[in-house]
Amino acid sequence: MKVGxxxxxxxxxxxxxFVDNLLQLMLIAVLCGKVCGxxxxxxxxxxxxxxxLSILFGNAFYAWQARKLAIRTGRTDVTALPYGINTVSLIxxxxxxxxxxxxxxxxxxxxxxxxxxxxxxxxxxxxxxAFVGGWLRRHTPRAALLSxxxxxxxxFISMGFVFQIFAMPAIAVVPALLVIIVYGGQIKLPxxxxxxxxxxxxxxxxxxxxxxxxxxxxxxxxxxxxFAVHLPGTAFSDMFxxxxxxxxxxxxxxxxxxxxxxxVGSLQNLESAEAAGDRYDTRSSLLVNxxxxxxxxxxxxxxxxxxxxxxPGWKAMGARWGYSMVxxxxxxxxxxxxxxxxxxxxxxxxxMIGILLWVGxxxxxxAFREVPRKHGVAVAVGLLPALAAWALLLVExxxxxxxxSLYDVAPRFGNDLYVYGIISLSQGFMLTCMILAAMMVFxxxxxxxxxxxxxxxxxxxxxxxxxxxxxLTPAGVQNRFGFGAARAYALAYLIASLLxxxxxxxxxxxxxxxTGVVA
Length: 519
Description:
Blueprint: H1 9-35, H2 40-73, E1 83-85, H3 87-105, H4 108-138, H5 142-167, H6 169-184, H7 195-212, H8 236-244, H9 252-275, H10 282-298, E2 305-307, H11 311-316, H12 322-336, H13 340-344, H14 349-352, H15 354-369, H16 376-401, H17 406-413, H18 419-426, H19 429-444, H20 448-463, E3 470-473, E4 476-479, H21 487-518
Antiparallel strand pairs: 1-2, 3-4
Helix pairs in contact: 1-2, 1-3, 1-12, 2-10, 2-12, 3-4, 3-9, 4-8, 4-9, 4-10, 5-6, 5-9, 5-15, 5-16, 5-19, 6-7, 6-15, 16-18, 16-19, 19-20, 20-21
């Protein structure tokens, strides 16, 4: 079988993944500069080039992996795993590690070193997780792996972009609707034009035409662009400087759950890819995932890179493996020449995000479509913790914009908004999503002992603070680990586990009686 490197569908896949990666790079530039006080030479000269090369490394591997799978199986519809910087880790590392150190010391270089250490430690833990990931994937119901992914897709991806689209209807609504219509209805455009590319081009044209007509809905970046080549350098001494001064271990309460989050998220993305028809080896995929973050930290990027959510969306667009390779090359070139700002001076962001909205929708649909119908209730239950995490983000954002914080306002909510319940359910939400969905699958299947085991797992994780435990501080919601960290939840889950064991024996006794009656 002759296998090339690029097909027509890779054009749309590239645009979608490129927009996603570009959004993360924009966040890095804004948050590191405005929140963490880092100078432009550090952001554009060290962090973004380091991020670019780690993204190139991962995209190259996953493109090669997909092409190898296509050759081995004789298929031409294999799609590479998408790869980039993890948004949740990015936000967590900025607001729970880097920014607090900057606020305390007013030293942006020390804050950057803290991020590098956190990225390296998280990556090492991910590599360790690669050796148990296959076992976890084999023993976890598909509904449990897909439900939390769907929760992230419908909240942090879809809803956030829906708000942005409808806040700028003149240039965003038409491209977004066009993407949904073309891909949702599997409609072919005239001349074989890729739907995503045409939608983005239409949005760009509308933005500039309206601007020339005196309606400046599109505001290009005012920051001037000057061409310069920024080559990454090594950051070994900076990574370990933070460890040597003793501060590094203090932030393991953030680093450990983020590493666990990345491992679990990658497992879920691998399961999502398999549900779409592409089965990839778990261990090698996770090892490269962790090694990519090690490359990032060594080159000066403090934000982990990881397997992305979105494989079913890119596959539905007809993307194969070329989209991944081209994305890695383009992102690298942009970062090395400081071109992120140049793109945003020409292309309205609102014209591009309809593609990401579609990806969020198709992932949510997949969670219900690719499991047995009776497991649909398990997927629905698994969405709840993700909804809580998203609600917490909205509350914290609103309070921050109002000039206050959740620490100051939380006691005033009372019964108008059970904010402490929102916080508790949001802590370790990806694990809670999996546990609740898995428990429900086994209840539906009348396998009560397995359901009880999942509830016992939740009890242990709660007791040690991996889920539900938190401390509300002026800096925000922080994890709290230790014995009895969330003992009330541990007790509740333990009781639920014992009830499920009782149901097992009660149900088994009834089945024995019914069998005897039938005989």
